[in-house]
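// run 5 | inverse folding | seed 20
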């Protein structure tokens, strides 16, 4: 149970850090000023899905290789 909690906590912390970095650097406002229509929330969700998928694939591969 602790292992799953650490897995989820680490991945959610990375997603929060990505979101915070975009907000603090003001990239959403900068991109809008240059005419780029980028949804930061969708980008954060997409990176979470890719991150969780990659971590799970790595976990399953490491168990079979060990």
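// decoded
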């Amino acid at each position: 149970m602790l292992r799953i909690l650490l897995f989820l906590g680490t991945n959610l912390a990375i997603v929060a850090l990505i979101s915070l970095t975009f907000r603090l650097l003001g990239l959403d406002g900068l991109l809008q000023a240059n005419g780029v229509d980028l949804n930061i929330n969708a980008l954060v969700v997409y990176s979470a899905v890719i991150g969780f998928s990659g971590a799970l694939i790595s976990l399953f591969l490491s168990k079979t290789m060990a």
